[in-house]
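FAQ

Q: What does a record look like?
A: Structure on top, sequence underneath. For example:
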């Protein structure tokens, strides 16, 4: 039995009266999880909608609490780390992490960055040791898969594409995913939302197909 951690991050919902207002990335990720559960009905899904329930930003006190050894933490410091502890526990349970994300200002939404800031934490998800030389950070977890399902208004963010250098979404998530113990990273994109033409429809259809194929491959 595997555990899937499904995180949605768009500010948009999927139950709007006008369908065009619905989040594309959330709809695609729901398709992934629904299909996954059809093929793996014993599996557990942990779900969070970070877009509708954003994690708190970290603060100076939060950083101080993180760098205080466990046994020396005050009750207030422990309380400040409760959300981080819970979110990290969800990552620890997960074999597969599905993150749906809109592209906002060429990168991830602030709510997703806030989640990573809560989760990528010294002595919890990574250790730091200068004996490792120029790369002192090492993840504590291993063997996870992460599937990033994204939607953008523009297009051409892939390697060799016309906006490759403007893409700070997939590459950023992939870099950070290492510190969650992710060893295999997949990205499925829907593009052209702002053009609302046949290219968008094709890109969306291709993303649904890519999800079907990936679910079959991983199931
Ligand atoms: C605040 C905001 C910023 C955006 N920035 C970009 C951007 O930098 N590049 C892009 O291609 N699309 C951008 N878009 C378009 C969204 O990526 C597109 O609408 C996407 O479908 C949103 O995801 P969702 O449908 O899951 O909500 C932006 C949209 C919003 C609302």
């Amino acid at each position: 039995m595997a555990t899937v951690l499904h995180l949605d991050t768009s500010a948009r919902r999927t139950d709007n009266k006008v369908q065009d207002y619905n989040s594309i990335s959330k709809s695609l990720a729901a398709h992934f999880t629904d299909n996954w559960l059809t093929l793996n009905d014993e599996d557990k899904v942990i779900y969070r909608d970070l877009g509708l329930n954003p994690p708190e930003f970290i603060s100076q006190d939060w950083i101080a609490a993180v760098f205080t050894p466990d046994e020396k933490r005050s009750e207030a410091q422990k309380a400040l780390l409760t959300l981080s502890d819970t979110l990290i526990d969800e990552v620890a349970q997960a074999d597969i992490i599905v993150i749906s994300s809109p592209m906002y200002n060429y990168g991830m939404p602030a709510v997703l960055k806030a989640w990573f800031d809560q989760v990528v934490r010294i002595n919890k998800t990574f250790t730091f040791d200068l004996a490792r030389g120029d790369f002192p950070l090492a993840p504590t977890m291993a063997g996870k898969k992460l599937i990033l399902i994204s939607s953008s208004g523009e297009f051409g963010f892939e390697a060799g594409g016309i906006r490759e250098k403007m893409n700070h979404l997939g590459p950023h998530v992939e870099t950070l995913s290492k510190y969650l113990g992710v060893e295999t990273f997949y990205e499925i994109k829907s593009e052209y939302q702002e053009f609302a033409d046949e290219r968008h429809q094709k890109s969306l259809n291709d993303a649904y197909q890519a999800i079907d194929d990936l679910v079959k491959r991983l199931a």
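Q: Is there anything notable about this one?
A: The chain has seven helices and seven strands.
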